Amino acid sequence: MSQLPEVPLDTLDLPSLRAYRQRLRDEEDRASYWRRLVHARLDLLEAGRSTEGSIALDDLVRVLGDTGSGASRTALMRVRAEEPLPDVPDLAQVWQVPSTADETDAVLESLRQAEAQLTGYRTALFARIDAATAALVERYRADPVLALDVLPR
């Protein structure tokens, strides 16, 4: 599913390894952004179903604002929503307004599939980020002076 090719980390010089790790982190930010949109839409559709179409302000605040951990989402402000993710179901359904219970069921199922794919994608990205971080730490342990060039001069 990844747009970023997997690279043998031992073939990268230090600046390239750092840049590769940053690209992975940026991609994870993008996947997280879309996953959160899918979650919010799922929550809104399910809340609307249980309240016969009307959603209380408190429910809306919870759906759109709750991170589960209390953390803010300011890191996601740099994600551009128009950039599509690879191999994810048509996320245009995030915005679809179903008019019947059957349409709602179909949209919910599609969104659940998208959420599962995004979760799997993020898991794979986290594994690659962890591997790149471990490679950086290994290089820094072997030669601690390498870590100094990331400090501002």
Q: How many DSSP-defined strands?
A: 0
**How confident is the prediction overall: mean pLDDT?**
80
Number of helices: 3
Could you tell me the strand content as a percent range?
under 5%
Order of helices and strands: HHH
Low-confidence stretches: none
Overall SS class: mainly alpha
What is the end-to-end distance? 39 Å
- Biggest β-sheet: count, sense, barrel? none
Number of domains: 1
Fraction of helical residues: 55-70%
As a whole number of angstroms, the C-alpha radius of gyration is 20 Å
Shape call? elongated
Can you give keywords for this protein?
153 residues, mainly alpha, 3 helices, 0% strand, elongated
Characterization of the model:
The chain has 153 residues and is mostly helical. 58% of the residues lie in helices and 0% in strands. It has one domain (15-147). The two termini are 39 Å apart.
Give a short synopsis of this structure.
With 153 residues, this protein is mainly alpha-helical. It has helices at 14-50, 57-65, 101-142.
List the SSEs and their pairings:
Elements: H1 14-50, H2 57-65, H3 101-142
Helix pairs in contact: 1-2, 1-3
